[in-house]
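quick one, 206 residues, struct below
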Amino acid sequence: MIAEVLYYIFIYPMQTLLGAVFESIYTYTHSYGWAIVLLSVAINLFLLKLTNLADKKAQKTNALKSICDAKIAEFKKVFRGSELHAYTQTLFKQKHYHPIYNLFSLGGLALQIPFFLGVLFLLQDFESLRGAKFGVIKDLSKPDTLLFGYALLPFAMSALSFISVFISSTDRGARIQGSLIAIIFLVLLYAMPSGLVLYWMISTLC
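---
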């Protein structure tokens, strides 16, 4: 009951809006595959300014983290225990930094999640998607079977995510975090409709 209420409050409006945009795009392209691709591009263009702001905030936080890490490394050569903790906390206050600020690096992903959920519910219930082909994909409503009977798109999507992570950041922590997220999405989307995986892969490219 609670899940149903939450769905109608938070997911259904987004699903309905994206459904209308999706149908409008299909009217012009006459291809559900291209409709998914263009929907993903449109969402990323809509979020572009907010994503850029989130990225800039994450870059500032990473720069602060690097400064603090270098100073803490110096502290560790001299101090131990409570003294080290006290000096570290003082440094954080002086630099207006806290380790939890590292979550700012997930800002771009957080902006995408409501749209991702809207597309997820949209494509799962979209009857017309059944049997719809796109290129080498035989049915956008089912997992693809391009890799000797196994799904190929989720691995291509994850490869793009890994490349994106290692291009966008040199910070070891950020790369580990990004790689874990890529693996999580590989597991979550492996058995999902290829149309949804295509949406997220295009989003990653954007």
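The mean pLDDT is 89.
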